Sequence to fold (135 residues):
Amino acid sequence: MINRVEKLSLLSEMIAFAKYDKDIKHIEYNFLLGVAKQLDISREDFDYLIEHPINYTHLKSHSERIVQFHRLVLLMNIENQGGNESKSAIKLYNFGLRMGLSHESITKVLYLMESFPNKIVPPDVLIDIFKTQYN
Fold:
């Protein structure tokens, strides 16, 4: 179970990911707000994080880092509806490395994304990729 500081850090990281090259699009904002609700973060706290990011807190749990990476994959797909996929892939790769995930697993996910509808890797496939590398 992750604590409130970790939840705020996750959300702040996702906001930074969405803001990386420009302002947050409306569709990204709604997706992030949905993640905030899942994490039990209030709308007020969410809106505050947009303007005042907090420092990154490294998640201890490997499975929580995989879940967070999957959220970033989904966010990247929302963001890429207008193109610019290679820049987003590099950004996703760097965020994954910072989270302590293996570069082999991240590379495999990015490669496999091309073969799925809407480039959305199913959670079970993503978990299998990381389990293989983790063991």
